[in-house]
Amino acid sequence: MLHTYFDTLIIGSGLAGLTLALNLASSKKVGLITKQALLDGASGWAQGGIAAALSEKDSPEVHIR
Length: 65
Description:
two-stranded parallel sheet, single chain
């Protein structure tokens, strides 16, 4: 049986898990466990959870209302 050892094991490949994995990868050996393919997570469906003012007609104040 093949054994693989990691400094850190992250369970979950959502936004938080992937962010943590990327931040630790430069200094630690990181393992990431996901229940599906990496791009099948639900973070992309978090409508309203992430908003940005991108156009000249938009502003942070509009998002607060």
